[in-house]
Amino acid sequence: MVKRGLLSRENAQAAEQHPILVVAPGKDDMPQAPAVIESVLTELKNRDTEMSVQSLLLGRIHVYSTVDSRVQHIVNRPRNSRTSG
Predict the structure, then answer these.
(1) What is the pTM of this model?
(2) Do 6 and 15 touch, CB atoms closer than 8 A?
């Protein structure tokens, strides 16, 4: 990264002093709002602009959204338990 001019030598040396933390994927890493994620991906697929799913996955664009966690919790429950609680 230093050779490409993306990072200064000083920042590279400072970064080398910190360990890289690796976290195994777990249950908490699963998306909590799959319907919202699917909606965003569908919207990006339907656009005729430079904003695409590939742009999102490559980090060229960022999508920010808000989700009502109470509603999302209800939506994520199995269908047969939605009316019993």
Answers:
(1) 0.46
(2) no
